[in-house]
Specification:
Blueprint lengths: L1 E8 L6 E2 L6 E3 L3 H4 L1 E2 L1 E7 L2 H4 L7 E8 L4 E8 L5 E9 L4 E9 L4 E9 L6 H13 L7 E3 L7 H9 L6
Antiparallel strand pairs: 1-7, 2-3, 4-6, 5-10, 5-11, 6-7, 8-9, 9-10
The structure holds 2-acetamido-2-deoxy-beta-D-glucopyranose (NAG) (3 copies).
One 2-acetamido-2-deoxy-beta-D-glucopyranose binds next to helix 1.
Pfam family, one: Lipocalin
Main location: secreted
Family: Belongs to the calycin superfamily. Lipocalin family.
């Protein structure tokens, strides 16, 4: 498994709350979104890519905001090439965050949605929001994987944390 670091330039702006209280969908303050997250749900319009040994199984470890306002993701990812754009869909900072990734490569394009939790699992309510978002973007429910039931490399991760290689 390869460790790949993705950086995404992003400007910080004021938070704007819309819909459900505390849910931020626009001008997300990435400083508040930084820190440790766990992958909870995972969806793609190309299900093979996210199944076991698929080329796009991504397990987030930490998210940091660098001094230059770039985002720094530390991810476990099995993917060799292609160009990715990552967008934060919504978050409430202290429970969950949703990402929408578009991958463009030589063979085909596909999209990937991810739901991360500050804890290892999330409430059904939040999972349902994610399922709705995926459906609205053409990803059916059967293409959504629950990562709380599979090996998320947490052992590797915990071992690393013990060694003090991670920062918050
Ligand atoms: C921000 O800094 C990081 C680490 O030094 C660098 O990799 C990244 O390219 C920089 N981002 C921009 C937009 O300059
Ligand atoms: C973003 O959040 C950080 C940490 O809570 C805070 O210091 C900063 O003022 C916020 N930025 C904006 C633009 O609200
Ligand atoms: C994934 O790869 C591992 C190691 O090569 C193998 O043991 C496992 O059976 C594979 N799983 C699937 C679903 O192909």
């Amino acid at each position: 498994m390869k460790l790949l670091l993705l950086c995404l330039g992003l400007s910080l702006a004021c938070a704007h709350v819309e819909g459900k209280p505390n849910v931020v969908k626009h001008n997300i303050n990435m400083t508040k979104a930084a820190g440790v997250w766990y992958s909870v749900l995972f969806a793609s319009d190309d299900r093979e890519q996210i199944e076991e040994n698929g080329s796009l199984r991504v397990f987030v470890q930490t998210l940091q905001v660098l001094d230059n306002s770039s985002l720094y993701y530390q991810l476990h990812i099995m993917m060799d090439d292609g160009y990715n754009t990552v967008k934060v869909v919504e978050t409430n900072y202290d429970e969950y965050i949703m990402y929408h990734l578009h991958n463009v490569n030589d063979e085909r394009n596909f999209q990937l949605m991810e739901l991360y939790g500050r804890d290892k699992d999330l409430s059904q309510d939040i999972k349902d929001r994610f399922v709705r978002y995926c459906r609205q973007h053409g990803v059916p429910e059967e293409n959504i994987l629950d990562l709380t039931t599979v090996d998320r490399c947490l052992e590797t991760r915990d071992a690393k944390e013990t060694q003090g290689e991670e920062e918050t």
